[in-house]
Every structure is written in structure tokens, then in C-alpha cells.
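# nightly structure sweep
# worker-07 picked up a monomer target from the shared queue
# config: single-sequence mode, recycle default, output format = C-alpha cells
# input follows
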Amino acid sequence: MIEIRKVKTAADLRKFVKLPYRVFKDYPNWVPEVRSEEKAMLLPGKNPSLRTNETVAFLALKDGKTAGRVTAILNSAANEAWGEKAVRFWMLDFIEDFEVAQALFAAVEEWAREKGMTRVQGPLGFCDLDKQGMLVEGFDEQDIAITIYNPPYYPEYMERMGYVKKYDWLEYQVMSPEKPSERIERLAGIIMKRNKFTILPLRTIKDIYPYLDEAFDVLNAAFRELPGVVELSREQADKYITEYIKFISPDYLCVVMDKDRRIAGFGVAVPSLGQAIRKSRGRLLPLGIFRMMRALKHNVSLDLYFIAVRPDMQNTGVSAVILNEFTKNGIKNGIRWAETGPELEENTRVQALWKEFEARQHKRRRCYMKDLD
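# output follows
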């Protein structure tokens, strides 16, 4: 017998956070969430997105044991921006049991109907900086800390339930060259000189603080036209700054300034934290923080979070300048390869950047959708 229950109590929330450790115990490529951060996602006092999004979290219990979980999100700002009447599903996990998946999505779809919505789609979080997209290719590849991992039966069940592709993201593994490319270095120099660009000097990460507001304005503007994206609020921006800033090194935060000393674009990368988080089973204490800090200093893999370029600067070569800096610093620090974050399948401009490197497209993830009767 399957029971669907809304997450209302602290005990329910603990079960919600613990479930993936049951689902993924035999999947070595999975990287768990940091438990404290995942709990905070569903606590209004800690997640400002809950003040502007209607949200409900469901647990599925089979024979008294937690067997599935999902969060449904009604993001009114996104619906208004994209002319949709959609509920997003997110934080989805379930055991290999089709009836459990059916019961979870029946609850999400019913909630969507109650709210007057006509579509369910996802996995999509509160905003574009949350993890998104269900893995449909690359199940045998190592997950990274900024993406979702799931077994092959997830997409199989989605399609059995009538969900279809809305759009896909691609991911690449990009090998680090043995030495900086003279051609790319020369090209970056020409771009810098032609546009009178400079790179913001960052001795410590605190040097970026005076520019944070401007950086998030650039981020909002750069991704505004991408499907499903909605602008970050100031409160949301502060939340993500708090989460990410402690893991960012000046070597992997490159800010390109234009001739007027405005941010033309910036890129963020972080040495891979996936294995450190997995070894600590998502706990920061007692050893989780130590392992993560060690991974930041001693690593052979780099996760490319994003490059954001101001719209009026998107054809000037800013991205090439940023990648050149990351490449030089990666070689200096012993990085052997980089993993890109998800890139929309149609975003050929970004994918063209990897043609200068030895690279392979090794993962694909999907936003599914289903129009309700």
C-alpha cells in the first residue's frame, strides 16, 4: 500500500532528506546534497524563495517505509514571464517502483489542478541557479556537485506517465592542455586590446564584494532570454552568495571590465567538491568541511559553474578571455580536466567554446513536461 503525505513536521523533513541515501546506496556516481542546505530549501526562514513561490513537498510511503519524495513549486513570476500556467517538480527521488512514481506525480498533478495550472514540468528549482534537469544520458559518468544524478529508470518512468521532452541540456568534459595555447593567448590579447578590456585584480575573494550587486545584474541580464529563467530577487542573490562564496578562489573567479570600468562579463569555477561531499555523506560536521576545503586546494578536476556576459558584450569575445584565464590557472594548479555545467542544447555559442580543446559531450539532461487534462 502506498501513502502520500505532505511534509509538515521536522520528522517528515528528516525523512525527506534521508531518502536519497536509500535510493542511491548502490550508485557510486551519485553525489548527495549537503544535508543542511537541502533542509534549508524547505524552511521559510532560511529560503527567501518560499516567500514568493507556493511550494508543497510530498513523501511517498510504501508499507510504512519512505519510498519517494518530490517538491511542487508554483513560480508565478516565471509563469508570467513565459506565458505559462505551470507547476514545477523538483527534489524528486523514488525507489525502483513504478507505482511509487505514479503516486507521487498524481499528487503533484492534483495540486497543480487545484491551483488552476495546466502543465507540470521539471525538474526545475526556484531559479536557474538551482539544480535542474533529469539525467537521460551519462549514467555511468561521475556526477558533480551542481547537477542532479538519477538512475536510468527515472526517465523510463517519466515517459510511461506521459511526460515528454520540453528541452535538453548538454554537458562536456574538457581536458586541460599541457601548456597554455599560444593561439588562444594571442586571441585573448587581441580581444582585450580591441575592446579596451581589463581583468579585475582579485588578491582575495573579498575584493569582489564591492561588485556583487553589479555582478548579479549582469547574471540576470545574461540569462534572461534562456527558457524558464526568471530574474533573481535581491534576497535570493544574497542566499546564493552566502552558499557559494566560501568555495570560490580568485584563481577561478574571472571578472572582465569594460573601458568604463563596468562588468562586461564574469565566470565562476570551483575545484570539484563531489567526492568530498560523498565521503561525508552530505554532512558538514565533523569532517565534511575539512574534506571540502582540502578538495579546493588539492584536486585534478574543475567544475565550470557558468560564464555570464552582459548582453551588449556577447559578441566581443569576453568568454574566450575568461576561459583563457581559467586554463592558465588550471594548468598552474594541476587541473587535468574540467566539467561544464548544463548548457541548453540550442546554446551553440557556448558549445563552440569547447572546439578549441579536447572535449567530449558525455551527459544529457532533460526538462520534462506534461499538459494536464
